[in-house]
Amino acid sequence: MVLVRAFGWLLLALAVAALVYDGLTWVWSGAFRLVPLGELWGQLDPAALYALEKDPARGFFSSLGRWLLLPVLALPALPVFAVLGLLLLRLGQPRTREPKPVGFVLGARPPRRRRRGGGLS
């Protein structure tokens, strides 16, 4: 659970970094564009991306991988990181054992407090 939430926070941090990068490129170029995952990966490690895309003898990535990986690399990085991060944060939440009772009109009723020593004497 903790690792799932930590990875979710990491993905949200990557989404913020992608938002800053997109904003800076918007200021520099004058046109707003969401950077795709493949372009971002290509700027971080171009040799690994080139080896993954161009080498046809890589087993899984030879035929099926091209149908799956290349469309994913064309997706914008900001929404992908944000949606996956929020999904992992939601999945990593601790589960409650007992469901809370819900009232029909006004919702759950708080428990009554007993008075201490203020009786008639």
Question: What topology emerges from the helices and strands here?
Answer:
Elements (H helix, E strand, L loop, with lengths): L1 H28 L7 H8 L1 H9 L9 H10 L3 H15 L30
Helix content: 55-70%
Low-pLDDT residue intervals, each spanning 5 or more residues:
none
- Counted beta strands: 0
End-to-end distance? 55 Å
Number of helices: 5
Mean pLDDT: 82
What characterizes the major β-sheet?
Answer: none
Structural class: mainly alpha
Shape: elongated
Strand content: under 5%
Radius of gyration: 25 Å
Order of helices and strands: HHHHH
Sum up the structure in keywords:
121 residues, mainly alpha, single chain
Can you describe what's shown?
The protein is mainly alpha-helical and 121 residues long. It has helices at residues 2-29, 37-44, 46-54, 64-73, 77-91. It is elongated and about 85 Å long. The termini are far apart. The mean pLDDT is 82.
Short description:
By secondary structure, the chain is mainly alpha-helical. 58% of the residues lie in helices and 0% in strands. It has helices spanning 2-29, 37-44, 46-54, 64-73, 77-91.
